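Appendix B. Chain record.
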Amino acid sequence: MGEKVDEEISKMLLEMLNPLAIKAAINVENELDARKIEADKFYLHQVERAKYDMEIARKRYMLVDPQNRLVATELEADWNLKIRELEKLKQEYEKKKEKNLKNAENYLESDIMQTVDDFANIWSSEKVSSRDKKRMLRLLIEDVSVKNDDKKIIANIRFRAGTCKTLFIEKKLPISEIRKTRTDIIRQVDELTQNHAPSEIAAILNQRGYCLWNGNIFNSKSVNYIIRTYSIKNRYRHLREKGCLSLKEKMLESNLSQAEIFQMRNEEKIVFYKVTDRDEYLYEPQNINKYLTKNQS
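Structure tokens predicted for this chain:
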């Protein structure tokens, strides 16, 4: 059941790719803006604190007694130091602010849009493991609730962007139903057994584009299985009901030996039918004596 749900969610994501990706891009942009504001506040606070310290140093220097040169010199030096620190923090703040804006623009314009364009290819790639796909799903989907019905699975999906989606998924058939031979194939086998051996029937079905439940082509073994399983009258029974004779019966009818029958069969001087993929034949009843008399004269 889980595999079927994952498969349908994957299909849905590919169908919803464009609107979902745009919504995700908007959310990322909003988050980056919020982080930029917080960073601005942090660095601006440092600048304001440095400005405050510089003003305190300036006031101390302005209030000192000019006669006290040693103290005045120290306070002036401290004031100059605070000025340099303030200028340094201002420059760093402007650089960080510009860098944050540049990174945000690059991320939105290149990384997000490239991810949108390549999402289908990335998702379908054999190099992407199921584990990585589940990680990608967790970034997009908040939660999934599944209800199990008799005939279908109902999956309610809630995305992180706030969108909700409901999937109605048909349940997988039991393996016995999956392996069950289609009725049209059974009907054709039933018709073909009147004139063909199993290997010939297999070749005809393959030529018509039919295949087994697992995608494999038909062969004499699979055709014989269908004949047995669905009680289909095989070629031998069809011919026997028409009055065709076995080898022994043909020998009695024609008063010929087995070797003579084989020779006439090889020379196609009698009517015979191959009933299996082995060398098993049935023979049409006929007046062989007329043919022999004509041949001897």
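Further analysis of this model is presented in Appendix C.
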